Amino acid sequence: MRSPIFDQVNQEKQSAQRWTLQSDKMLRLGFGPEALAAKGAMVAYQGQFDFAHEGSGSMSNFLKKAVTNEGGQLMRVRGQGEVFFARSNSTVFTIDLEGDSLTINTSSLLAFDASLDWKITSIGNAGMLAGGLFNLTLGGHGTVGIASDGPPMILDCSVQPTFVDPQAAVCWSSTLSPGLKNDFKLGSLIGRGSGESFQLAFHGPGFVVVQPSEGVAPGAH
After folding, report:
1. The whole model's pTM is what?
2. Calpha distance 73→56 (Å, rounded)
3. What is the pLDDT of residue 194?
4. Which pLDDT band holds residue 147 (cuts at 50, 70, 90)?
5. 149, 152, 147: which is closest to 208 by C-alpha?
6. Distance CA 94, CA 38 (A)
7. Which residue has the higher pLDDT, 124 or 32?
8. Quick count: other Cβ atoms within 10 Å of Cβ 184?
9. d(Cα 92, Cα 109) in Å, to the nearest integer?
């Protein structure tokens, strides 16, 4: 049998490293230690694994999750072999946390080391607005895999106020506490992916990663 599909570039990349980019669209995670992954992010695995629903972590997290389908949709992965993660043909990145912290839009999350501390966070009253803006804040030492729907852009929020469509924000410095800006005039022109005229407002020492897409709005079909 002969086909370009069998070219070496498409073969699984063997690596002794725990986190490996199989390609710019797919992340390979080798086991040992346990990991937590976003439900729906796994596309394949080899070996013996156990996948279990992960609780919300606390009663406050549980209550937030009960309000919306966003946030807390995690599974705990344990076993031996390798698991592959991807999200809608998006570009995949890994970020190593070295005692610092990061807040991630749950729709951009792939997986992270279970050794990292995590909690579900919300933005102001956004749980009731704009489809539920719940995010995941990670801290400690470990690696997280994220996906960006296209080449990302890094914005420095310390220079001037920065406003981002909620579905275009991939992740940001946990030192930032984004607020909500409600601009109905602006919302009639841009930001329609959110279904509302809300933008995330960032200002302070830190960065926000923005993807060139509004993704899929919560509840959209």
Report:
1. 0.83
2. 8
3. 46
4. very high
5. 152
6. 15
7. 32
8. 9
9. 10
